[in-house]
């Protein structure tokens, strides 16, 4: 929460500097962009740990209850596959950023900050492979019920 508040204060400071003083701090925008990336992926990893990620759950409302375990296993496998795909291609992206030595801000290289992408998606892929395997043997923990 403190990080989010700090990000909001930086964004407001940037707006005030631009609108009232005709200047800005050049490092604020790349810092905020990377902070949003980090917060988003850390939040996604936490959500996948607790199996509380956002779901578009149309199929379970249309299918009878007896098919729900099969649907859950299929969704876990699909989610793991997508996470592996994103992790794989993001490794290439981070390597390119490393080769081009693009700075994010100051002397901080952009590849270092963007390395959270393959790490985050790899962690989520492993978690969903585990959930898939547990689902195959009937030991998958129950999904969290949505809070209304």
Compact description:
This protein is mainly alpha-helical. Helix content is 71%, strand content 3%.
Please give the largest β-sheet.
2 strands, antiparallel
What's the overall average pLDDT, rounded? Answer: 89
Radius of gyration, taken over Cα atoms and rounded to an integer in Å: 20 Å
N-C termini distance: 23 Å
The shape, in one word, is: elongated
Structure notes:
With 148 residues, the chain is mainly α. Helix content is 71%, strand content 3%. The chain has 6 helices and 2 strands, in the order H-H-H-H-E-E-H-H. Strands 1-2 form a two-stranded antiparallel ribbon. Strand 1 and strand 2 form a beta hairpin. Helix 2 runs parallel beside helix 6 and helix 4 runs antiparallel to helix 6. The longest helix has 33 residues. The protein is elongated, with a radius of gyration of 20 Å. The model has no long low-confidence stretch (mean pLDDT 89).
List keywords for this structure.
148 residues; 2 strands; elongated; 71% helix; mainly alpha; two-stranded antiparallel sheet
Strand and helix map with partners:
Elements: H1 2-21, H2 28-49, H3 59-62, H4 68-100, E1 103-105, E2 108-109, H5 110-114, H6 116-136
Antiparallel strand pairs: 1-2
Helix pairs in contact: 1-2, 2-6, 4-6
């Amino acid at each position: 929460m403190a990080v989010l508040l700090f990000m909001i204060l930086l964004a407001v400071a940037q707006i005030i500097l631009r609108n009232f003083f005709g200047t800005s701090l050049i490092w604020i925008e790349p810092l905020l962009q990377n902070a949003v990336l980090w917060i988003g992926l850390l939040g996604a990893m936490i959500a996948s740990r607790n199996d509380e990620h956002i779901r578009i759950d149309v199929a379970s409302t249309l299918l009878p209850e007896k098919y729900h375990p099969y649907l859950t296993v299929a969704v876990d496998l699909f989610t793991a596959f997508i996470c592996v795909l994103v992790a794989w291609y993001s490794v290439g992206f981070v390597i390119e950023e490393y080769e081009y030595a693009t700075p994010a801000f100051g002397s901080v290289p952009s590849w270092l900050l963007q390395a959270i992408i393959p790490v985050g998606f790899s962690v989520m892929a492993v978690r969903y492979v585990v959930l898939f395997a547990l689902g195959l043997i009937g030991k998958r923990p129950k999904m969290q019920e949505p809070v209304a």
